Amino acid sequence: MRYSRGPLSVAEEVEGRENDEKRLLRHLMRGYERDVRPVKNASTPVVIQLSITLTQIFDMDEKNQVLTSIVWLDQEWKDELLTWDPNDFGGLKIMRMPCERIWLPDIVLYNNADDYTRGYMNSKAMVSYDGNVFWPPPTKFRSTCPVDVTYFPFDDQTCVMKLGSWTYDGFQVDVTNRTSEVDLTNYVPNGEWELLEARLIRNVVFYSCCPEPFPDLTVTLKIRRKILYYMVNVVLPCVMMSVLTLLVFCLPPESGEKIALGITVLLAFSVFMLAIAEKMPETSESIPLIGIYLTAVMAITSISVVMTVIVLNCHYKGPTAKQVPRWMRRYVITSSPLPPVTLTRSTSVISISSYLMLVEAEMKWISGWRDT
């Protein structure tokens, strides 16, 4: 009989505890108004103690300048209308209650990049017998974050999330922070961004519309971009293509790939420019230095292609080319730091003997020009 009584006694205890919870819930909800601040004296503010637990930096959208983060918004306050004597309800000291049945502070993200229709997860609130309410809803914040891409991809960003009551002033709902640090115990590192600093600061703001103070909590996140991906996929290819631009001038004129190489490098830089432009925000406040570098190299590559066309044109015309103008010959002879040799007609590959003959003829021409 002792063994048969065990399960029955446990079942009776569980049933009795369920009855205590039902009685307690009916007792607490009797005459309770969730739309009214839970204070007995209307002049007493409800003190909201907030703490932030950052679990992940989900995404950083540089183009739209939006930071997506996953946080646990721990909120604790005292509800003077939700108190009871544990001895009257089977020793119950904590009650899990649906959050939609009790008063909740209207804490919102001021710099929200989305609308305010989503709200928080409808998790249950933990209510203790002395009226303390603890509600830790997990949520995904999409906050605006001005991005400075000047030093992309070697950039640091500072993002701010501003939290506070939307309708209550500081005399009705006083928002405070438990600690100045953000809890990173459950933080999952991001593959693209490194978290440098996370802090929580309380501010009190006075607006021109109202004389009452409006307290808020500002979460500041400092993050740094991890550069390994961009070094391998952006920076090193740009450096190698810049070297290829110089190699265009090293190819002999007989090679038919001088122009092809220059145009190929130019198109490759154009592709990199488009890839970077798609990632950067459409703003004129800051321009990435790598974009300026790519533009400059594209300009140099374009000039090298034009110069290659001129060289090939002179090379393949041969003796049919027109005579060099007199003013250009005088400029080259008197101003150029190069040896005073001016080819009056473009020629093909010149041997050493031909070069010496041209130098001798040029010297004779110079002496005759000076005598005149």
UniProtKB/TrEMBL annotation:
<dbReference type="GO" id="GO:0045211">
    <property type="term" value="C:postsynaptic membrane"/>
</dbReference>
<keyword id="KW-0770">Synapse</keyword>
<feature type="transmembrane region" description="Helical">
    <location>
        <begin position="227"/>
        <end position="247"/>
    </location>
</feature>
<dbReference type="GO" id="GO:0005892">
    <property type="term" value="C:acetylcholine-gated channel complex"/>
</dbReference>
<dbReference type="Pfam" id="PF02932">
    <property type="entry name" value="Neur_chan_memb"/>
</dbReference>
<dbReference type="GO" id="GO:1904315">
    <property type="term" value="F:transmitter-gated monoatomic ion channel activity involved in regulation of postsynaptic membrane potential"/>
</dbReference>
<keyword id="KW-1133">Transmembrane helix</keyword>
<dbReference type="GO" id="GO:0005231">
    <property type="term" value="F:excitatory extracellular ligand-gated monoatomic ion channel activity"/>
</dbReference>
<dbReference type="InterPro" id="IPR002394">
    <property type="entry name" value="Nicotinic_acetylcholine_rcpt"/>
</dbReference>
<dbReference type="GO" id="GO:0005886">
    <property type="term" value="C:plasma membrane"/>
</dbReference>
<dbReference type="InterPro" id="IPR006029">
    <property type="entry name" value="Neurotrans-gated_channel_TM"/>
</dbReference>
<keyword id="KW-0407">Ion channel</keyword>
<dbReference type="InterPro" id="IPR006201">
    <property type="entry name" value="Neur_channel"/>
</dbReference>
<feature type="transmembrane region" description="Helical">
    <location>
        <begin position="259"/>
        <end position="277"/>
    </location>
</feature>
<dbReference type="InterPro" id="IPR036734">
    <property type="entry name" value="Neur_chan_lig-bd_sf"/>
</dbReference>
<feature type="domain" description="Neurotransmitter-gated ion-channel ligand-binding">
    <location>
        <begin position="21"/>
        <end position="227"/>
    </location>
</feature>
<keyword id="KW-0675">Receptor</keyword>
<keyword id="KW-0406">Ion transport</keyword>
<feature type="transmembrane region" description="Helical">
    <location>
        <begin position="289"/>
        <end position="312"/>
    </location>
</feature>
<keyword id="KW-0812">Transmembrane</keyword>
<dbReference type="GO" id="GO:0034220">
    <property type="term" value="P:monoatomic ion transmembrane transport"/>
</dbReference>
<dbReference type="Pfam" id="PF02931">
    <property type="entry name" value="Neur_chan_LBD"/>
</dbReference>
<dbReference type="GO" id="GO:0004888">
    <property type="term" value="F:transmembrane signaling receptor activity"/>
</dbReference>
<feature type="domain" description="Neurotransmitter-gated ion-channel transmembrane">
    <location>
        <begin position="235"/>
        <end position="335"/>
    </location>
</feature>
<dbReference type="InterPro" id="IPR018000">
    <property type="entry name" value="Neurotransmitter_ion_chnl_CS"/>
</dbReference>
<dbReference type="GO" id="GO:0007271">
    <property type="term" value="P:synaptic transmission, cholinergic"/>
</dbReference>
<keyword id="KW-0628">Postsynaptic cell membrane</keyword>
<protein>
    <submittedName>
        <fullName>Uncharacterized protein</fullName>
    </submittedName>
</protein>
<keyword id="KW-0325">Glycoprotein</keyword>
<dbReference type="InterPro" id="IPR006202">
    <property type="entry name" value="Neur_chan_lig-bd"/>
</dbReference>
<comment type="function">
    <text>After binding acetylcholine, the AChR responds by an extensive change in conformation that affects all subunits and leads to opening of an ion-conducting channel across the plasma membrane.</text>
</comment>
<dbReference type="GO" id="GO:0043005">
    <property type="term" value="C:neuron projection"/>
</dbReference>
<comment type="similarity">
    <text>Belongs to the ligand-gated ion channel (TC 1.A.9) family. Acetylcholine receptor (TC 1.A.9.1) subfamily.</text>
</comment>
<dbReference type="GO" id="GO:0042391">
    <property type="term" value="P:regulation of membrane potential"/>
</dbReference>
<keyword id="KW-1003">Cell membrane</keyword>
<dbReference type="GO" id="GO:0045202">
    <property type="term" value="C:synapse"/>
</dbReference>
<keyword id="KW-0472">Membrane</keyword>
<keyword id="KW-0813">Transport</keyword>
<dbReference type="InterPro" id="IPR038050">
    <property type="entry name" value="Neuro_actylchol_rec"/>
</dbReference>
<keyword id="KW-1071">Ligand-gated ion channel</keyword>
<dbReference type="GO" id="GO:0022848">
    <property type="term" value="F:acetylcholine-gated monoatomic cation-selective channel activity"/>
</dbReference>
<keyword id="KW-1015">Disulfide bond</keyword>
